[in-house]
Amino acid sequence: MVNIKDLHPESGPQAAFGARLRSSREARGWTQDDLGDRMGYSGQHISAIETARRVATLRFVRAIDLAFGLDGTAETFEREWREIRHGILLEGFPEYVGYERRATEFRLYEIGVVPGLLQTRGYAEVLANSAVQRNAITPEYAAERVAFLAERQAALVRPKPPMVHVVMDESCIRRRVGGPKVMEAQLQRLVEFASQPNTLLQIAPFDIGERRPFHLPVNLLTLSDRSVVFYAESQAQGHLDREPTSVLPQLMTYHQLQAEALSQAETVAMIQEARKGIS
To answer: Does 55 reside within a domain?
Structure first.
């Protein structure tokens, strides 16, 4: 008779994660070896995660989601893993990141800082280290944040890369982040981004004034089935929406923003002018 160890999910996040894994596996009638075969791991490895004797890796949790058909949903194990590892993320963001890997078209709007997907590592590290100095996050979390951003950026490099539209408020290039070397590299990265065949970069200049339709950063993703995912966040709250009746008006508003923004050629010229002022 197989000795099945009792689980105590109330004892901590890792134990709760393991209990959920066992419950999901048993609901499908799979043994630990069955699940391991589907994931490329041994049954012993599955057992160690279920009983919290071993900590799951990012590769492992993504393999779970593929095996259970949860990739890109709100119920991914990756979402729970990140919440355990990094603390609670803003509502909707883990699910949004899952959609990022499958999106065929991105529409991004950012205020104050360069959008994460376009940040250089140096620029991202300065922002993360600044949060550490304010005691907002730990040094360990800062390193994880930068590594996580690099993973998201790498996911955009595909055989058929997505179309990426980016509108940045002018404050993104005027606000100095790090020293001259960091800012110069970041502005150069923006110019390089604008030169790619699958990208469109625009700046919403200060002088559009009240015609700027968004007052918070906004992300819109178009998926392969042509549905659109909307994500926006403030300092303390995130919001994800897939309901067409509320998402499509946001898409129309984004188009209005693009109409008010500078052309890509004008945008690159403004960025190059900003580079001259760095010293």
So the answer is: yes
Distance in Å from the first CA to the final CA of the chain? 73
Task: Give me the residues paired with residue 169 across strands.
Answer: 204
Is there a domain that residue 3 lies in?
Answer: no
Alpha helices in the chain (DSSP H): 13-27, 32-39, 43-50, 58-68, 77-86, 93-100, 121-133, 139-154, 171-174, 180-194, 244-260, 264-276
Token code pair at residue 96: 């949004």
pLDDT in tens, 157-185: 888 999 999 999 999 999 999 999 999 99
* CATH code where residue 41 lies: 1.10.260.40
Spell out the residues 6+ positions from residue 158 whose beta carbon is closer than 8 angstroms to its own: none
**Amino acid of residue 27:** A
- DSSP assignment of 65-112 equals HHHHT-TTSTT-HHHHHHHHHH-PPPTTHHHHHHHHTT-SEEEEEESS
The pLDDT tens digits for 221-272 are: 999 999 999 998 776 677 888 899 999 999 999 999 999 999 999 999 999 9
Sign of the CA dihedral with 235 first, then 88, 141, and 161 last: negative
Radius of gyration (Cα) for the chain, nearest Å? 21
